[in-house]
Amino acid sequence: MTRISLAETAHQLIIEQLKTGDAVIDATLGNGHDALFLAQTIGATGQLFGFDIQEAALNNSRERLQTQQIQTSVTLFQASHAEMLTLIPQQWHGKIQAIMFNLGYLPGADKTLITQAASTLQALAAATQLLAEQGVLTVMAYPGHAGGDQESEQLAAWCQQLNPQQFSSQIILSHHDKPTAPRLFVIRKRGYLL
Ligand SMILES: C[S@@+](CC[C@H](N)C(=O)[O-])C[C@H]1O[C@@H](n2cnc3c(N)ncnc32)[C@H](O)[C@@H]1O
Q: What residues contact residue 60 under an 8 Å CB cut-off, 6+ apart?
């Protein structure tokens, strides 16, 4: 049996969502794998915004995009994703087709610099405002590391309190059926009914 990872599942969902020229956000740049994937998906006419609190993450992401000769319009912020609503220009509000979060720490770096539940929830609230109608938000969460368990629990509770007339949410569990296994949260903004 072929098993695909949750990261691949997230990419698949996003590919189904996006078209050339779309605007997207990578809320946790890390080493730039998701940023590269997003840029390749939206192409040269797309707009990618990226956030990370660590300079190394911005450098790694920029280098990865440059190495692949990405032509996409890219704006990277060394800032918390909690600030995305103020940092992303107003003209893009309500026009972002996909936003990806991959929580936790930067692989190969200081494991104490992890995402925090409070700022993650603040960022998610901002993300729901930035999303276009029918846009999708994916959040990879890791309950297996210190702090990640609380963050995942709070994330599940946050999904529960979303207005079901405006958003749908789904949790996709890893095939490793353990409470500590990663999980993928998928939130979709519904379109307004006429
Ligand atoms: C698991 S990594 C992301 C992996 C990345 N998406 C990739 O494809 O390589 C998590 C990243 O979140 C970043 N991070 C932690 N707190 C943050 C915050 N408040 N705002 C933005 N990024 C944050 C960390 O610095 C780390 O680089």
A: 29, 30, 31, 32
Over the stretch 101-149, which tens digit does the pLDDT of each residue have? 999 998 888 888 899 999 999 999 999 999 999 999 999 999 998 889 9
Task: Provide the terminal-to-terminal Cα distance of the chain, rounded to the nearest Å.
Answer: 44
The CATH number assigned to the domain with range 6-189 reads: 3.40.50.150
b/e 80-99 (16+ beta carbons within 10 angstroms → b): bbbebbeebeeeeeeebbbb
Ligand 1 centre to CA of 115 (Å) is 7
* Domain limits, the chain: 6-189
Atom 5 (ligand 1): residue with closest C-alpha? 30
- Predicted TM-score (pTM) of the model is 0.96
Pairing of strands 47-52, 73-78: parallel
Residue 176: the pLDDT is: 74
| Pocket residues: Cβ below 6 A from ligand 1 | 28-34, 51-54, 57, 80-82, 102, 104-106, 113-115, 119
Give the separation between CA 139 and CA 12, rounded to whole angstroms: 14
**Measuring CA to CA, which residue among 132, 111, 127 is closest to residue 185?**
127
